[in-house]
What we know:
- It contains 13 helices and 22 strands.
- By secondary structure, it is of the alpha/beta class.
- The protein starts with 35 loop residues before the first strand and ends in a 7-residue tail after the last helix.
- Mean pLDDT is 78; it is low at 1-130 and 479-484.
- Bound molecules: (3S,4R)-3-hydroxy-2-oxopiperidin-4-yl beta-D-xylopyranoside.
Amino acid sequence: MSVRALLTTGLLAAGAVASPQWGGNNGWGNDKTVTVTKTVTSSHVSTATKTVTATGSCKPSSVTSFSTSSSTSHSSSSSHSTSATSSATSSATSSASKSGSSSGSSSASSASSSSSSVVATTTTSSATNTNPTTTLVATATATGLDTAAKAAGKLWFGTAADIPGTGEAQDPYWSAEFNSSDFGEATPANIMKYMFTEPEPGVFDYTGAEQFLDFVEGTDKLVRCHNLIWQSELPTWITSPNVTWTNATLSAALRRHVTTLIEHFGDRCYSWDVVNEAFSDSPAGAYQSNIWYNTIGAAYVVEAFQAATDAVKASNLNVKLYYNDYNIEYLGNKSYAAQNLVKDLKNRGIQIDGVGLESHFIVGETPDKASQQANMQAFIDLGVDVAITELDVRLNVPATAATEAQQVLDYYNSVAACVAVGKGCIGVTVWDFDDTYSWIPGTFPGQGYGDLFLQPGGANTTLVRKAAYDGVLQALTGAPESSA
Ligand code: XIL
């Protein structure tokens, strides 16, 4: 029995969520409901036996019903075992952790890759700083998200990595998963940003970026280089100059930065996010007030893309040039502003190859598949690619069975939209894959649990795939509703 997504309207939490800095808008409809029937019994040394039963109704387009029963036991915070029985008729053994562990083992009876089921398990109290009460665990046979994405005509399924930075590269379990067939692309979460690459005027430092590339290269991953011009993570010599910037002096600094980085990294970058987050949420689609806009005006975006275009041409590079932003994942004034930017650059003969849809979503507020698909198509119709560049779906912690089920659907809908528009959506990148290293808890207090994996025992222990992983895999392997 195929499972494309999970949701019961009756289970939906009345989602009180913090006002988002990235992503999230009220009013997005969830026009799909799913039948979920599962009975779960979990026991844990520190947790009472739990039973969850959920049912709901189903609308047709992307979901079918399923039922699962499972039992889970945890013997300690660093080891666990899981067993599950699924209603699926075919079964295969699947490891709940792709990276393996000497301290834990997990197996589940599940369907083949075209089928999947979800079990719930209780995580340890030391699991993560998000401290979920319930975890829906993926049980689909892991063919690899990147493998599935490529089979769907995408260039990759990828992930951000904060290297060097969070220590994730030193976590052997994180590293094993990073190097698995789940990921065919990597984005440096921070280390190529302005403050790191040009800490002093005209003094470029590639030390950290080279560490990132050393870690990634040789693993058959493409790299989305991120980013050249943004309002955040700037060096103080830009934000607090000794001599007040003029249009001419700041434009010169902008051009030097863009040109130097593009030329230095060359075709090691599949693409560059040339300008990041130029548009405001309030009023939506206006230019964001920042040092660049306030000094140069809207022309700074054009100047950055012109400098990038010139550098690509001068060095005869294949690098794709992207505009990247959040809250442009659905049609609205901010998306229209980005579309107008694409048109403007093209009219000027300036290179722009794609638009990055960050997709920092909130459980229950994620735009539905149709909304995301229509928005992607609008960009594609302008002659540019799109990519989902920073996908995560956060929730108020602790997670509940309802919010986790909704998270599966939100992940599913986002990836399914990319599949549905065909090759114009080149790939999907998650903003890290492991809650342990996610930026969410530090940025959005009270929220977390937004990634595809968690480590029940914390850093340096086995990773467990969440049900959201199955949602992504199902979206990648499901038949597209249309193709470009
Ligand atoms: C975030 C990083 O993940 C954090 O570690 C850092 O503290 C702030 O930036 N949009 C972007 C990314 O384009 O660069 C941001 O990354 C997340 C929002």
